[in-house]
């Protein structure tokens, strides 16, 4: 094992390393469209994964996600990266079944570090019941790790950004703040114990809704990752033709997240998110700046944002809390207004 810290080798960490959403939107907008009637979900509505109709009532769910480390422990980094990649399948209502490792690794680190990263990923995949069947690795000056994941979904239970209905309640399953907490850790303001509140959340699989909420009427779902709660809420609202109204005080926050935001510990991705999604969000005048900053904070392996039948929202939240998740009803779905998201 070398004495080099993983986080010292990267400019950006976790999902905060994503390409700016505005630049990505332009690139995707210029790509040619390939028509296939069996492709049920592509990238048009900014969904978490693609879904291909297998013709027997099932859909194949395919996703790919990897990023640089946000922690120094290589096993923990592998756990977080794998949980984050698996989440895309859960967000579509599916179950992950097969994964391929994607590893970029610098020569300055001992090969045993690579082994620990892969072991961390294998740990989360095993917990998910997902088989790791191989992968690909290359030399790179920055370490990066993630998975290409294949899963399956019953098409009558398929979830996507499209589908949020006026009158639905909005449920968020995990607390926000992983970006500001890990930025503070990278900057030396927090130690291993201080960052644990974020890592404990990030390694948690997003399979809980599927296990305890099968009888809950769910109309739309996305996982909250690099584009922040505000960004992913905009995508759901625009895909569904509605406005999401969010009660800022109801949004669960990681301990210390707002304090770190007040200290300016914001990842660069938070500013990019605000620049791109901010004009589509009506931020109430009474929402404190530090709270608004966390709402735009890029999350790594964040929770699920669900649009569910309002009469069943409290039941879902109760079940999720029984499983140890800080879930909450954070708002509702309204008729389309001037903005995609209204924060009050």
From TrEMBL:
The keyword Magnesium applies. It catalyses: hydrogenselenide + ATP + H2O = selenophosphate + AMP + phosphate + 2 H(+). Binds 1 Mg(2+) ion per monomer. The keyword Disulfide bond does not apply. InterPro entries: PurM-like_C_dom, PurM-like_C_sf, PurM-like_N, PurM-like_N_sf, SelD_I, SPS/SelD. Keywords: ATP-binding, Kinase, Magnesium, Metal-binding, Nucleotide-binding, Selenium, Transferase. Its cofactor is Mg(2+). Residues 47-153 form the PurM-like N-terminal domain. Its EC number is 2.7.9.3. One of its GO terms (molecular function) is selenide, water dikinase activity. The record marks 18 as: Important for catalytic activity. ATP binds at residues 18, 45-47, 65, 88, 135-137. The active site is at 15. Residues 165-343 form the PurM-like C-terminal domain. Pfam families: AIRS, AIRS_C. Mg(2+) binds at residues 48, 88, 223. Belongs to the selenophosphate synthase 1 family. Class I subfamily. Homodimer. Synthesizes selenophosphate from selenide and ATP. This is Selenide, water dikinase. The gene is selD.
